[in-house]
Specification:
The protein is α/β, with parallel strands linked by helices. Helix content is 32%, strand content 15%. The strands form 2 sheets. Strands 1-6-5-2 form a 4-stranded parallel beta sheet. A two-stranded antiparallel sheet has the order 3-4. α4 (102-108) packs across α6 and α7 (174-180) crosses α9 (210-221). The N and C termini lie far apart (40 Å). The structure holds zinc ion (2 copies).
Length: 241
């Protein structure tokens, strides 16, 4: 985990300009690293959508995208469409070595908070150990921690583990993606961790929901009954309605 010292150091190194468009930030935005204009360019995902998976409503018939999801996974929502601006932001979070941008992304995710009538906890989608070593941090954990600061709810970092490396998913169809991540997650410390929490899975990007569904399946198997998923961005799936 990032120390307070390194966060302060990061702040010193960063010029007072927008990380994405390099416009100067006003003093009002001093605690941000993305300017208001760039944040406005993140096109919000809005209804009408499938109440469960948050995907634009199918033209006819039931939603195919979430039909196979485990029953415990109640809803998934995303803040913005993965288009130029949001893609740039996700890239900065993942590869730019500027995890502090998570606070700006988390602020844009305020509308994705699932309704709850009890205590809830955030569960970041884990990275495979090898990828975590390469990147130095888990971008989903950074998002979850930023959301936890906003919403004042706990993050369960050690609950979910990745039990095997999965090939990168960018070129797979929805159906093969689900097979690709099958059995990729396990649950640790379920007894001390989950309690009576509604669990909110956190990931940076939703593509077909396969990763969230597989993580939810592992949690369900360990006894969780109330799971939601939230992501900053959502990729449009061509020819899938
Ligand atoms: Zn900007
Ligand atoms: Zn659906």
């Amino acid at each position: 985990m990032r120390s307070v010292l390194s966060a302060a150091f990061e702040q010193l190194l960063l010029p007072a300009e927008c990380l994405l468009c390099h416009a100067l930030l006003t003093p009002r935005d001093a605690n941000r690293i993305v300017c208001p204009l760039c944040r406005q360019r993140w096109r919000a995902v809005r209804p009408p959508w499938c109440e469960r998976c948050g995907q634009p409503e199918p033209h006819f018939g039931p939603c195919r995208l979430c039909a196979q999801w485990p029953a415990a996974l109640r809803s998934v929502r995303s803040a913005a469409w993965l288009e130029e601006g949001a893609r740039h932001a996700v890239h900065a979070l993942k590869y730019g070595r500027v995890p502090r941008i998570a606070d700006d992304l988390a602020a844009a995710m305020s509308g994705t908070r699932p309704p709850s009538d009890g205590p809830s906890a955030l569960v970041p989608i884990p990275l495979a150990p090898k990828r975590l070593r390469e990147r130095g941090y888990n971008q989903s954990e950074m998002l979850a921690r930023a959301l936890a600061r906003q919403w004042h709810i706990p993050v369960l970092v050690d609950l979910l583990v990745r039990t095997r490396e999965t090939p990168t998913q960018t070129t797979l169809t929805p159906e093969t993606r689900l097979a690709n991540v099958a059995g990729a997650f396990g649950v640790r410390n379920a007894k001390c961790g989950m309690g009576n929490f509604a669990l909110i899975l956190v990931d940076d990007v939703f593509t077909t929901g396969a990763t969230l569904a597989e993580a939810a399946a592992a949690l369900e198997q360990a006894g969780a009954t109330h799971i939601h998923g939230i992501t900053f961005a959502r990729a449009a799936i061509p020819d899938f309605t």
